[in-house]
Specification:
By secondary structure, the protein is α/β, with parallel strands linked by helices. It has 2 domains: 58 residues, no CATH class; 213 residues, 3-Layer(aba) Sandwich (Rossmann fold), CATH 3.40.50.150. Helices cover 41% and strands 19% of the residues. The protein is built from 11 helices and 9 strands. The strands form 2 sheets. The protein has a 7-stranded mixed sheet, with helices on both faces. The chain has a two-stranded antiparallel ribbon with strand order 1-2. β1 and β2 form a beta hairpin. The longest helix has 19 residues.
């Protein structure tokens, strides 16, 4: 990268795009290094880059060229209406999970319309917290009590930081550490109206996993036994003890797991089982009622 201390943001953007082979990624990183949003960055394209911003951008470019995911390089990402902190302690939020959240929100709103005064919701394996925080922020204020759990102490730290940055710190949101339902107080059994989870669902020997995923993202959040179904077996087997009457379970699933997860739900006496697709038309969401 040109070290000329008189380079402008517009010139630097062109240099970065050539190095990265992506104009969009170069723009995101330049905006991030400058601290400017899209419109403000466009207005500042003729301004000279400060030494501090240039050093920060060079470091991010080096990380990206080494293969580190863009979201970890930037340490932040947009998810639905949230801007969240992400780093290699948690899974990178993906667009497919936004579809899962929308399905959960639709079910919650339907329950609220049926005169349910307040919903108790759980987000199991919360990671960065995007599912639970989206539910808390997008559903009517005061209508939900949201519990977010994760086994990883690192993930809990990230989720708490994102709760603090979300403006929801005084909302009815609790973040607790533990494995799936074990993190929840036992007195809450049979009281959850909605349980949502994006658990690990990749087989440990799956050859299709991209190197950037396997090398950088936390394996605890990715892999679930030889067939990728171990987390579903555990969650589905226990969910009946925690769901209220007519409560719903919403799971993100791998695109080839629809039939297997449907069978697990049926074996555990779930009803109204539905497998829904994502934007690409692939199986992505399992919904069932106890």
């Amino acid at each position: 990268m040109n070290s000329d201390d008189s380079i402008t943001w517009g010139e630097l953007l062109r240099v970065c795009a050539a190095e990265l082979g992506s104009e969009q990624e170069a723009r995101w990183l330049c905006e991030h290094a400058s601290g400017l949003q899209r419109g403000d960055f466009d207005a500042a394209r003729d301004e000279v880059v400060s030494e501090r911003c240039g050093v920060a951008l060079r470091a991010m470019i080096a990380q990206r060229l080494a293969g580190e995911p863009l979201q970890y390089v930037m340490k932040s990402w947009a998810f639905r209406h949230l801007d969240v902190m992400v780093d290699n302690r948690v899974l990178i939020p993906r667009p497919e999970t936004e579809v899962v959240v929308q399905a959960a929100i639709d079910l919650a709103n339907e329950m609220l319309r049926k005169s349910k005064p307040k919903l108790r919701v759980a987000d199991l394996g919360t990671g960065s917290g995007v599912i639970g925080l989206s539910l808390a922020s997008e559903l009517p204020r005061g209508s939900t009590e949201v519990w977010m759990t994760d086994l990883s102490a690192d993930a809990i730290e990230v989720a708490r930081a994102n709760l603090a940055g979300s403006g929801l710190i005084n909302s009815d949101v609790r973040i607790v550490q533990g494995s799936w339902f074990a993190a929840l107080p036992s007195e809450l059994k049979n009281s959850f109206d909605l349980i949502v989870s994006n658990p690990p669902y990749i087989g440990v020997y799956d050859p299709s996993v991209e190197a950037s995923v396997r090398n950088y993202e936390p394996h605890l959040a990715l892999f679930a036994g030889s067939d990728g179904l171990d987390a579903y077996r555990e969650i589905i087997a226990q969910a009946g003890e925690w769901l209220a009457t007519d409560g719903w379970l919403v799971l993100e699933i791998g695109h080839q797991q629809g039939d297997s997860v449907r069978e697990l739900l049926a074996q555990n006496k779930f009803k109204q089982i539905e497998i829904r697709q994502d934007f690409a038309g692939r199986d992505r969401i399992a919904i069932a009622k106890i």
